[in-house]
Specification:
mainly alpha; 525 residues; 21 helices; globular; single chain
Amino acid sequence: MNQTAYKNIGIATLIMMASIFLSRVMGYFREMTIAAMAGANSAVDAYRVAFVLPEILNHVLASGFLSITFIPIFSAYLAKDDEAGGWRIFSVIITTLGALLLVLIALCMIFAPRIVPLLAFGRKDPAFLQMAIHMTRIILPAQLFFFVGGLLMAVQFTKERFFIPALAPLIYNLAIITAGLVLGPRLGVEGFSWGALLGAFLGNFVIQVLGAAKVGLKFRFQFNLLDSDLRRYFFLTLPLMLGLTMTFSMEIFSKFFGSFLPPGAISWLDYAKITMLMLVAFFGQAVGVASYPYLSRLAAQQRLAEMNRMFNTILKYLSTLVIPTSILMWVLRYEILRVLFQRRAFVSEDTRMTAIALTGFLVGAVAFAAQTVVNRGFYATQNTMLPTIYSTVAVIISLPFYWLGLKMYGLLGVALAISLSAIIQVAVLYAIWNRRSDNVESRMVYASLAKTVLAGFPLGAMLWWAHRLLSAQIETVSFQGCFTVIILVSIFFVSLMALGGWIFKVEGIRYLWGRLRRRLLPGRA
């Protein structure tokens, strides 16, 4: 791959990193608003559960995978200089599967009173179930906008346009926050449900129609169940519809097993998960989304060696950044959660319980970051069956750990089970990819991972010591005190990262430090 392509990936990555970072920041404002207004209780648990059935419907139609499955199909038409053919299959998929989705939404709304209690099986409170069912029905129609928006964003990605798709999560979160603030005093957490529906309509549909129009959108209603390209798309997407992915299983099982814990546990798990995913999104998701069109192009051109080189480079830097930052977040977990959430209805006990859950999630943070890249290698080669099969098997294998963790360690055990499942999935999929693609340089990724883990032990010990020393001098109950400790420990962390990178010869740290030094001190490069 030439330097221009790498430069384009870098620009796209910066756009997606900015979008994901801002959307996560806004997501935190959303969660902070929910925490301040309602805390962590049965009503908030019901709001969390209300997203499960829509999430299942989203998964069944593979709406979350539209960019992954549709980009290779659309790209193939562009490669043959047949853009009209690409817009034709685009129209067929939206019309045919959109009609099916409307039927499924209607059925889910009718049968919600029977389905929702199964999704939170451990919670038998009638008031809780009634709230969860009502909010589920509010959120369900948003899946149509996610489905159509996913295709609209996919064509923009294919045309290497990232800015407008990057706005979708920002608008979605902004709508939830606004609706929660405006409707919350009268409707409680239900106000946030209406915000989710509005955000999906504006961010994933209205704005994306405008973005797709700028790259030549051509659509007309074409209902055709027998279309050969639709069948190809269906069979490419079918494994993703039926499989249990890492993110999907986490959403389902955190609610299901959390329902067997005391009221508020589902919310504690979600607050912790969202905190961990900010780290994952910033380092992993942005790179995965931005690099995927280029991986697809390399796969279409059968340039497997270059794909492996790109894979290995990305994974080395992810492990170099995510593992140490996870350690930093664990050391500062109480301060971070106090700054983010502890106010009004969210009390110190909620902070303590969320910190317990966050500990479990941080164990698997590097796996969650890596899967955003590893899975896309298979998807770029239009092999959706293999990763789905192994991911599903890994989820099934991990089920006993969920139950064992729940029984032995409660909240911490459920979070640890989620992390263990993620680690198993990524380790297996990367090993399979290496074997199938003859990725002989993968040992360098394992070596970099081992070095980073090794460096993590003294790093964690020194961060813990610095944190303990500062906590003895600065009270960490107030916002100002917590923020001060976070800043000081983080500065110490950056210094240790630079030093540790040279001592342990961690390539990623040495590279990043070198780039930073050349920018700050160009005369000494």
